[in-house]
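Lesson 9: reading folded outputs for more than one chain in a single document. The general rule is that every protein is listed as its sequence immediately followed by its structure tokens, and records are never interleaved. Here is the first one.
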Amino acid sequence: MTIPVKQINDAELPTQTSSSINFEDVLAETKLGKFNYVVIIVSGLVLATTLIETLGISYVLPVSNCDIMLTTTEKGLIKSIGFIGIIISSHFWGFLADTSGRRKIMAPALFSAFIFAVISSFCTNFWMLIIFRFFTCFFISAGSATIYAYVGEFHCNKLRSKAIMAASTLFGIGATCLPLLPWLILNEKWSIEIDAINITYKPWRLLIIIYAIPDLICSILLWILPESPKFLLSIGKKEETLSVLRTMYSFNTGKSKHDFPVNTLERCFEKNHTIKKLPPSLNPVIKLLKIIQSQTTPLFSIKYLKSTLLASTMQFIIFFTMQGLYVWYPYILNTLNEFEKINPNNSSLICEIMSFKENKIIFNGYQKDSEIKCQEDFEIKTYITSLILEIFYVVGFTVIGFSINIIGKTYILLIILSICGISGLLCNFITSPTISGYFYTILLAGGITVPVVNAATVDLYPTNLRAMAVSISLMFGRLGSVAGSNMVGFLLNVNCRMVFYISGCSLLIAAFFGFFIPKPKENIVI
């Protein structure tokens, strides 16, 4: 005996107008279940790969100096080059994701990032390292912004922000690899001579490859997952959209795909940006630039200008502090721990300790030898404090994920950015190296607000502009990373205290800007 399943025609679904149905209602019919959890997990891993590839180099450079003799300026450039690769490519990847598909762009790009990362582990000089790290992050950029649109478009309005925050929580868990892997690998004392290419393969080179393995895993998983149903609908592929929805429904409910209670999308429409047709004889490069321009221009129209400028400014400020200072985090933290180890009863401000280090003065007041021993590992306490920061990210993302719809994005931004900004200012007044290190860690914790801003951005734009909008805002964020990392490198020697004054005040300004984030329209066509 078979149980009859009621099939819902489009006419039975709640409508926005008499001639179309709301895709949100159709998407809600897929329910929330295993399929969504898989998408969230993969999305979290993709986000983690971006962080690991851009910031993992911070743990590599200090211990690679025995093999690649780099000046402080060269180290600063290598720390910045990953962000530059992301900045240059963000607009390009956002355009491709909005016109060709989310998954179709991310999967091959992440595989390419893995290949370049592996090659970079064999580099023997500054120029080789900077070139291959640039291309590694050029390709990793494809996932950093596109994935927010991808995960959001598998969820209806009610669940979208929570899904993005859930992916960010998993991203935080993955980010714990930043200090954990160096802790496990760098303190090992081994080396392998590779005569064919004249290098000595040491733990820091292996660490680069280990950091890149998630790129390969994400590439494979994205090839397995389907394209975003909202993107497919936006380009008119209604049958493929329905197929994805049926697959989601089957995985989530355990029922047959044929039991999905919607059997047609003929009256379900998705607003899409129509690209103006260009003459076939036009130069291909010029044609591509014109298409990119046509995809970008709407973001700066009167309708979206406020949202675009606000999201971009807030991302610039948050990344300026979060990643701009993080690339120096292992170095500064290790310096504080070295000082405290040698001078357990000595109290000094963080900038005084950094001044001793930068001027090559040993912490007991004597001049260092002319031949400075190269560093091949970190103090254990450095790893532990770094791990505390990553755990804070995991807890923060989890709490925000559960409370974002209750408290609201504006108040979350106000509370977190204010606390982190004040902590940054206090770094200039605390004389305990341990406590100042913890306040420095809290300052960097402001990065947990990045997905909150991204969730707000995703809510404010339609499908055909969403990936480009997030890409542009994150492009400005990466500009902030470059500005922040170079500012720290310069001011550490000139006026260290300004590093914390500027960073703390900037986050307080960003907290204030959160009040001006527009409210998403309830009936926006997603």
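And here is the second record, again sequence then tokens.
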Amino acid sequence: MYEATTSRIAPSKEKIYISHSILMVGMQLMVWLAASGMSRGLDNNGLQNLLCYKSCCGPHFHCLVNCSWEARHDADANYTLHFWYHDEEMDIKSHTLAAGKATFIRFNQDIIYALKNATIWVESHEIDSPPLVSKNLTLQISKAVKFDPPSRNSISISRVNNVLTLMWPKPKCKDSTMKKEARIKPRNNVEWTLRNCTSDDRAMNKLVVTCHLEKNIPYEAQIRFRTSDRSSHWSDWSEPVFIPAEILESPKVDYTIGQFGNNGLRNVTLEWEKPSAEHGDVHYSLTFRLLPCSCEEANLPMLPLNSHQTSYQAALSSAGYNVSLEVSNEAGSSSVHSLQFPPAQDAGTRFLNVSLSGRKFTLTWEAKMDTEVYCFEKQALGKALSRAPCDRKNLSARKLYESSGTVEFNTCYHLAVHGFDLDMDIWSTFGFTYLFARNTSLEDPIHINVINQKPDSAVIWWEPPKALSACPGKLKKYIICCQHEQDRKIMYYEANASETHYTILNLQPRTRYYVGIWAYTTESKMLCKALVPFLTSAPDPKKMTLALSFLCLFGGILAIICILHFGKKRVKKALCPALPDPANTEALKIFNKTGTVQVQPEQGLLKFLESSSLLEPFTVEVLSAKEEPTTKTTVDSLDLMKALEEPPLPKEVRMGSSNVLPSEYKGQGFLSPLEDDCHGREAFGEFAGISPEIGTGCSLLSPNVTEAGDSQDLPLPLAPLSFRLLNKLVVIKNGDSSCGFPCSDDVST
């Protein structure tokens, strides 16, 4: 097509010869001009970066070619694009395209020889200036392809063990080989690094680049590509592609299983942790598989969850399930985390009726809904999982059905009937129970170990029977029997089904016993046999001595406390005797010639002698031994009253005893010693507060007293008050110097 177009525009032979000569001359001229213009362009910042390419448009000629360059922004310059073909056999050696004042030109490839190698340059023409010529560009236009960069959505990424794989679709104009480049930088960094990535051209309709990463951190990547021909151009860099960190493993899943309800379902809650932000947007996928049934409906469809969800609630039957959680992000998927839900552990029977005779059983159950698929589960605990086939039979809701079969002795079985709800796409349980056909003659005895034998106790350890203890609700308790060797008396104890040891108390030291354990169920009788012997230890003499020492020490301390408590009163009475109450004693005795009589002093005796007011001051005169006055002091009557209050006056003394009072009364200040014959008067004088020196010649009482001791109520004369001050006897008077009593030496009035 191209050759036909060329022959159609070819001239005659003479014209071709002339044109050829002209072109040769013109070519030499242009080479000279180009060389000179090139040097001028480099020196004067002329035309640079000439680029010619076409887009990926297939083998047809209706494809646009783009040529662009950089130049000084001179509005008066005109640009011309030149093509010079290298093929000597061609009649037309060159093409010229005028671009005007623009620095680019776009034209269709069919106006030039696109399949021929050509040298391309551009010239600029300015007024009053020599032309400027760019550098030469040699290429073939048909192969000068520049691809568009792949879009962000068209690039798929994969990251496994820090090996990054980038893939995007191949362009329409395919080439046998393609060159690809990738540059990568850690996220939030500025500088890009061109990586030495490998290419894989074996993929169909895909371009693949594989790069190795150093750390498991998020990155950003850009790619570009071109054909292997030297005429092609690199595409622009693609938009940055976020490469999240690799999810090395799925998060751990925690679950909570609720109680089995009357609707045949139990609520299960799954929870897991959300991956960190460096993993980008994550997606979760949950898969539930019913373990005991082997039909298609047992595999429930996968449940896709959003990236912000970290929990899920499901309604499951009483059967065991296998649950798988898979976490994925843009870089790939993590390893699948799987866990198994055990069957419901409720001990109660959910069937309407369960009968067991030997090894044969019969179950009666009720369909909870209309269904066409159900499964009967009979699983022996502790053995390999057996998957039962599903029965496809129409079941009506609230209708009774029966299932029967056989079991092995001393093996725990989980029996259940599960139905599939077609509308809700879930399985529910119509009934389930645990069955244990016990045969005591085939049971292994329980292994017993007696440890920590003490004089009065022993600890019994045992290994639970595996099959029976693992069967929910079948083992009720343990019965422990302990027999005395001599009197053959058996004692029974009970322990919970979850315990594995028991302490027997109240045993005798140095005594042999026999012990046995029986696993009790509701269907079996009590057959406890004491067969394992053990001997209690002797008392420890050191411990007994130590205990006795503590007991003696405690008893001694207690005895001392009791002795001190009960003897402190006697000691107190012996060391500190109590003083008798003067009110109950004969504190005053007056002696006369006829005998001793007790006189009860009048209260008026204690009154002040003066008749003046208490507010009137008293005159106190202190006399020396020569009866010479030395000082005069005025004393307030209130101060004198306080001085007179100490020591206190004795209580009234009643008559009735003629015995002389003990000497201790003298030290209390109530009585003076009775030494002379006039004992009654001196005693009464001292009781009234009169000094013995004053009261030697003054009669205070009328001697008119009968021998019987009866008082005639005679009036008592008033007595002056006296006290000692600074070893001086002070007599208080009220203005009258007469004492009424003869005053001896060393007395002041």
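What the second record shows: The helical segments are 2-8, 13-43, 466-469, 541-575, 637-644, 679-687.
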